[in-house]
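User: Can you predict the 3D structure for this chain?
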Amino acid sequence: MESHKIIQVDEKVPFNLLIPLSIQHMFAMFGASVLVPFLFGINPAIVLFMNGVGTLMFIFITKGKAPAYLGSSFAFLAPAGIVIAKFGYEYALGGFVAVGFVGCILAFIIYKIGYKWIDIVLPPAAMGPVVALIGLELSSSAASNAGLLDETIDPKNLIV
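Assistant: Here is the predicted structure, written as structure tokens:
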């Protein structure tokens, strides 16, 4: 059986893995950082710029110990869509700011108290099935959006 090295937060990524991991990360972030702004009618260039500012701030604050890209999230689509439909776009923007503020408060609590309590509140054994369930729940939507559930399937959709 092949063993895989787990790169810890305080370790540097080996040089031979920098490019493949960077490309993987780019594909992971691209959907949320470009598609989500399109869905909300926001210029993706502004979102990518602010993602870059947030990422640089994060790297500076953590002193480079946790290299990460801070980007957009698909998690906001459903709640923001409901708020926009019922109250308007301005309220959704206010919700984004409120969520950011709550995130800052949570980060401060974790900074002061530590992170061990998170494993008690959200144990890995419970989070794995939750993430899998979310993916399975969204798979039919993805197949529908790709045109794979239509009466006649366009071969171009299969290639993509």
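The CA atoms of residues 46 and 79 lie 22 Å apart. The radius of gyration is 19 Å.
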